[in-house]
């Protein structure tokens, strides 16, 4: 082994260490680690000729996906309406033909909600939303 080759080892090690040190340097800005929102909850709703039913009918505040099936004989629209504190929520699906499904996404604050169908004299469903669900910070989120 030549003297030049042995002398270049410490120089290379120093260069690699210096590069790693400089890559770690940056702004001294502190970024708050904001927790993730709660994981979305899937709620199912069914529109029958007599009433709208929803399951579960009680849950914690946070994002939801409402999956609706129309089991009546008429085209329906489903409306989610209520208020959580100072926030009024009113969302509606598009037309849902008989035997078809639709979905609706919302971020619901704590409060009481009513889920109604638009066509016919169909009894509405009630949805009670309690305090916010825990953060999904330590959960593996899957598509």
CATH architecture label name of the domain at 41-132: Sandwich
Beta-strand content bin: 35-45%
- Helix share bin: 10-25%
- What is the CATH third-level topology name of the domain at 41-132? Immunoglobulin-like
Shape: elongated
SS-based structural class? alpha+beta
Task: Characterize the biggest β-sheet.
Answer: 8 strands, mixed
Q: What CATH first level of the domain at 41-132 would be assigned?
A: Mainly Beta
What is the rounded distance between the termini? 56 Å
Classified in CATH, the superfamily of the domain at 41-132 is Cupredoxins -  blue copper proteins
Total DSSP helices: 1
Question: How many beta-strand segments?
Answer: 8
Cα-based radius of gyration, to the nearest Å: 28 Å
How confident is the prediction overall: mean pLDDT?
A: 83
Task: Describe the protein's architecture and organization.
It is a single chain. The chain has 143 residues and is of the alpha+beta class. It has a domain at 41-132: Immunoglobulin-like (Sandwich). It is built from one helix and eight strands. Strands 1, 2, 3, 4, 5, 6, 7 and 8 form an eight-stranded mixed β-sheet that branches. A hairpin with a 4-residue loop joins strand 1 (41-47) and strand 2 (52-55). It is elongated. It starts with a helix and ends in an 11-residue tail after the last strand.
Record keyword descriptors for this entry.
alpha+beta, Immunoglobulin-like, 1 helix, 15% helix
What's the topology here?
Elements: H1 3-24, E1 41-47, E2 52-55, E3 58-70, E4 78-84, E5 87-92, E6 101-108, E7 111-117, E8 125-132
Parallel strand pairs: 1-3, 3-8
Antiparallel strand pairs: 1-2, 3-6, 4-5, 4-7, 7-8
């Amino acid at each position: 082994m030549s003297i030049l080759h042995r002398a270049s080892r410490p120089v290379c090690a120093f260069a690699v260490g210096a590069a790693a040190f400089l890559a770690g340097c940056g702004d001294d800005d502190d970024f708050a680690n904001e927790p993730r929102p709660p994981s979305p909850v899937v709620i199912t709703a069914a529109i029958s000729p007599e009433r709208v039913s929803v399951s579960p009918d009680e849950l914690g505040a946070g994002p939801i996906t409402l999956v609706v099936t129309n089991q009546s004989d008429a085209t329906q629209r489903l409306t989610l309406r209520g208020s959580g504190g100072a926030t009024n929520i009113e969302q509606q699906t598009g037309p849902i033909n008989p035997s078809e499904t639709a979905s609706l996404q919302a971020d619901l604050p704590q409060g009481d909600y009513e889920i109604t169908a638009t066509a016919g004299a169909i009894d509405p469903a009630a949805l009670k939303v309690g305090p916010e669900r825990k953060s999904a910070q330590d959960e593996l989120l899957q598509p």
